[in-house]
Structure prediction request, 804 residues.
Amino acid sequence: MSTIIALMTDFGYKDPYVSLMKSIIYKINPKVKIIDLTHDIPSFDIHYASYILLVSYKYFPRGTIFVVVVDPGVGGSRRVLIIKTRNYLFVGPDNGVLYPAANDDGIVDIINVVNDKFFIKPTSNTFHGRDIFAPVAAYLSLGIDYKIFGNSVTIEDITKYEINIHEFNESDRTICGRVIHIDKFGNIVLNIRYRQYNLYKLFTEARISINDRNFKVKVGKSFSSVGRGELVLYINSFNLMELGINMSNAAKTLGVKVGDSVCIELSS
Amino acid sequence: MSTIIALMTDFGYKDPYVSLMKSIIYKINPKVKIIDLTHDIPSFDIHYASYILLVSYKYFPRGTIFVVVVDPGVGGSRRVLIIKTRNYLFVGPDNGVLYPAANDDGIVDIINVVNDKFFIKPTSNTFHGRDIFAPVAAYLSLGIDYKIFGNSVTIEDITKYEINIHEFNESDRTICGRVIHIDKFGNIVLNIRYRQYNLYKLFTEARISINDRNFKVKVGKSFSSVGRGELVLYINSFNLMELGINMSNAAKTLGVKVGDSVCIELSS
Amino acid sequence: MSTIIALMTDFGYKDPYVSLMKSIIYKINPKVKIIDLTHDIPSFDIHYASYILLVSYKYFPRGTIFVVVVDPGVGGSRRVLIIKTRNYLFVGPDNGVLYPAANDDGIVDIINVVNDKFFIKPTSNTFHGRDIFAPVAAYLSLGIDYKIFGNSVTIEDITKYEINIHEFNESDRTICGRVIHIDKFGNIVLNIRYRQYNLYKLFTEARISINDRNFKVKVGKSFSSVGRGELVLYINSFNLMELGINMSNAAKTLGVKVGDSVCIELSS
Prediction:
């Protein structure tokens, strides 16, 4: 089966951890395709991982199996979950990291994975990515029914990490939110969603308040809509409001970090 | 079709941008092979990207489709190009980044991509990697004629970034150029090409001038031709002159950066 | 053939070196699967590379071909080796880096690769990863007999890098060793092996001496067995003793580096 398994971890690229997950997966299903969502999640950062998963999952083909290993509780009592949603399967620890994406797609069923006949034996206490998550995902990719891996649990029963997204409506003029992510370019992503890409057709200017600083920026189509070094507000490719500087790093320039509060007042 | 799509971006590895390009590509052509050329291009660095592409492309199988997303002008008026060369297809923004490699292979035709039926809809203004470049490359890999994607434009009409390479002839004794790249090891690559690997058979010593510093180095077969910590001049694997230090970082030691002028006087 | 080629280098991700090895491999065998073991080996670090290979190799399917390019001696007189072991093939420079893993699996035969009809021509003096190791591995993956690549040499005749691992027995109370690796999370891996994961069932506390510092830690199942910020000793997923701090970086906190001496006194 040419299913895709999408891997996301906080393992980085220096250690062999990711490659060992892949070798286990290929041993079980040599025909599966593996895509690295990212392995540069900051260590233990469930917010970062769940944000990446939330904005990314829907671009993957139906049936993709997402495996998330950001798992500081490995070896303890946290459970291993398979979450079946309307279009995907999510495999990971019961620490909330899967919840925002799974909930967004629509949770159909949740399995507490206890059937250890699918695990690598002996099973280590510190690397369930290799010994549990990878083989479970690989067997799922072979078409094995997800229900066989354990017992069903309710949504109420699992750990939920909540990513709060505010919806922006065209009739709004002011809206407040938080910095939800800062990307590689230093673009500042806000937890404010607008379902169109054309905000710049409705508004020309925005007054921004972040951390007791107030400033005006243009509303543009993208970072390239303003002069080099200028700030601009635009709708990013995940339909979230984003502040960027053309050809520079907005987060460093403004000293902004994830979690900071932001208010925006738009004018045309 | 088992075509190869080679991806190069300045997206880094922390964000899901690269993986989303891959998921779009696999959705359209599950059988294509994807090779990551590199995604660690410094943000917006067209020189860096076009150098990597220039020295790398010819090692890929005939028919490989190169996709380059170093694209600070995304969302603006810059065009999307498919450049057909004698052996390859290049897809990327019209900002010059494709030009050195495409020109080196021999440009056959250039298409200004305007046929949006191949784009992801709605098309974002900030992530054409996912919404335009990836699907265009994926459809090309299915064998769709590149001419269907838009209208032909002339070489005169596109943006060219020029990488100037000087050819070194065996009869030369002195030659000047610039630092064109510094690699992971700190080896200093010059824009001076010698079409053989055996420079060390013709010359034993070189007098180097960089940034008002003058020093003598051995001419060797490779960095391992000199003692640990010694400087050496050799022909690298792309037939370019390179300065390295055995088991150490030449660029840091000499304080050299890309663009610095270099003159070389060879003696046997 | 759906053989796996596992690549490990110190090439990093900024340069195209790894991708050029892959393009050569796919040109020769489009059906092979490539897994990146890691390319973030510190430059020239044979210890680091041979440790990663030693702990990783056995998780790969039988018949996997490992290619290791940590090769400061490229272009000099160091030889290129194929080592056939009981279950795998190892390809790399004769500088010791392959030895710990190959020896652990059981060396069956060693070939000094001299048959240059399998090399890329002209063969560079600085990038045998592309011109020798990649094509040799690719032809091996096609099923070509490893003996055809050169002449057999004896174990006595090759360079050996030794990784000394101490075996811990249940009857021991004290044992000394060294720091063998520090992983991405800052967990401190020791060269002391215990063949079970259940050390925590035998002992509850350990007195540790590192660099003239003495302190007591709990013996746990994993880092998550102690409170946040607390030190703990456990058996890692490669059956090696490891010191970690729950949700933090033990190596930075303790100022420990690879090679440091460690003594452990266990009590129940």
Q: What stands out?
A: The mean pLDDT of chain C is 97. The interface with chain B takes residues 11-17, 19-20, 22-24, 26-27, 30, 43-44, 72-76, 78, 122-127, 130-131 of chain C (CB under 8 Å).
